[in-house]
Request: fold
Amino acid sequence: MLFRFGFVANAMCLWDASPAKTLTYARYTKLSRSERKDALLSVTKANLTNTLRTIHYVIGHGIPLYRFSSSIVPLATHPDVLWDFVTPFRQEFREIGGLVRKYDLRTSFHPNQFTLFTSPKQEITANAVKDMAYHYDMLDAMGIADRSVINIHVGGAYGDKQSALGRFRVNLKELPDVIKQRMTLENDDKTYTSEETLSVCEQEGIPFVFDYHHFYANPTDDADLDDILPRMIKTWQRIGLKPKVHLSSPKSESAVRSHADYVDANFILPVLERFRQWDTDIDFMIEAKEKDRALLRLVEELSAIRGVKRLAGGVLKWKA
Reply:
């Protein structure tokens, strides 16, 4: 079976390559009208250039997964700014998407924690729909909306988890179906457990992204990986992508929820061993603070295990 690995947004090994350079609203308001437009274009151009640099980097290193930064376009969803960020950068978006398709990269977005569908406030739901549309529009501009996903968490409990889950199902109807079809859900480290998130995914026909670190930090009393993982794998069948898992390890015993700089191979080996029994290819997104450096170190360590062969910078062949 193949275990493939990727990292999030910023390649630490590249110099000054952040794809998330910012333009705050406070700074934006202090500029003249012409300066505002120039600032929006300049920051977006820099972020797209660095995204392209990073895509070339992952191709060169044989890393098959990559998560785009959600901050490529500054103030894209701010109600007082809303601007057409696609038209000025059609060529850049298409160039990025062309490389993704040519090298068969698996890409995704992960909006922030405020993009949720459990809130009793309609404006929160409206903003969530707007943010999901922003991410989808970037994928569409790249020409890869049919092969990428947008991953979010279920959201808050607001003191009554069952009521919040009911609102999730109702509020989700506000999301255009074409966007919902590219949506995935991930268990979180405080509120919705793996079992709860997986149940929502099964009911709504949404692929489930299993986060092993979150499973460890926010366990279900009767959680059983031998039950959760096969069900997780099954949720991906509808869209024809390999099951996806997030990997990181705790920063310390006193900071269990915080991500360490690198991934402790001993921490994640139990879940890797579980996947071996089903002989299923799995894609892993590394969420450690050191990003690509953490990925390359982890893959190097895992490749030293008997029965594991490294095929590329981010690909391992593991005997079942």
